Amino acid sequence: MDAGPGQVRRERRAIALALYTVLAWSTVATAFKLALRHGDVFLLVFFSTLVSALTLAALGAVQGRLRAFLEFSRRDLVGLLNPVAYYLVLLAAYDRLAAQQALALNYTWVLVLAGLSVPFLRQRFSRKLAAALLLGYAGVWIIASGGRLTTFSGIDPAGVALALLSTLIWAGTWIVNTRSAGDPLAGLTRQFLLGALVSGVIWLISGAGFSAPAFAGAAYLGVMEMGLSFFTWLLALRLTRQASRVTVLVFLSPVLSLLWIHLVLGEPGRLPTWIGMGMILAGVALSRRAGPPDVT
Predict the structure, then answer these.
(1) Rounded to 5 degrees, what angle do the CA atoms 23, 213, 46 make?
(2) Is-above-0.85 flag for pTM?
(3) 253-281 pLDDT, tens per residue?
């Protein structure tokens, strides 16, 4: 049955919202590095989380659902993992690595989720999934070794470890959230409010100073990486009848990210990074065909 004019408009809105979100997310790696030039990791995590929480709460207020957004439960303690632990680890990785390297390594969270879905979500471990994991992590090795394969050269091993740890935290959080039957936007808001409180305490204890340029960068991240972009992505998925039309667009984000990294940060394109990223994306595409949960 053909879609009527109303559904056609909804599909167009969904694609437009998804494209906006992908474009916003593609700028984040560059924004991380720019913000880290002016501020400490603790400062950036606190203020970006706070801005994101306020943005999400404002969206809830506009929808007349703010009270539901503030009904906390023990499940919201996952906010200690994401945003707090996740962004502390991820920004520490970006602080140690070139933006293109951290970006590529962090993108393997999809592969981690596919792997964790086997024991925790009872997904079948297929040959396709095994091939996807091997292909993706072969790409990780190429990036980490600088293409030399037998040794790490020109890259911080601790940065690599932090980037890979961030993927485990993100995927673990995703699995925990799949067990929640509530409104995902409301749950996200509560997690970020809790995250802002905890990361604020960490920032104060750390003694890190305040920087106006760093705050500006954190505000950008709070809106473009977290708050508004999460909302527009969820809205796009709700508007469309075929989620695959929307989720496939997320593959544009890392490619655009590498472009912004080169144009804005001036990082030269590194062949091992491009090869590794290609292998990671191929592994991600193969993992989707293997039948894991919709990870985007």
Answers:
(1) 75
(2) yes
(3) 998 999 999 999 999 888 888 999 999 99
- 283 closest CA partner among 255, 261, 251: 251
pLDDT tens figures, 97-150: 999 999 999 989 989 988 998 898 888 888 999 999 999 999 998 888 877 766
Three state DSSP letters for the chain: CCCCHHHHHHHHHHHHHHHHHHHHHHCHHHHHHHHHCCCCHHHHHHHHHHHHHHHHHHHHHHCCCHHHHCCCCHHHHHHHHHHHHHHHHHHHHHHHCCHHHHHHHHCCHHHHHHHHHHHHCCCCCCHHHHHHHHHHHHHHHHHHHCCCCCCCCCCCHHHHHHHHHHHHHHHHHHHHHHCCCCCHHHHHHHHHHHHHHHHHHHHHHHCCCCCHHHHHHHHHHHHHHHHHHHHHHHHHHHHCCCHHHHHHHHHHHHHHHHHHHHHHHCCCCCHHHHHHHHHHHHHHHHHHHCCCCCCC
Instruction: Give residue limits of the domains in the chain.
Output: 5-289
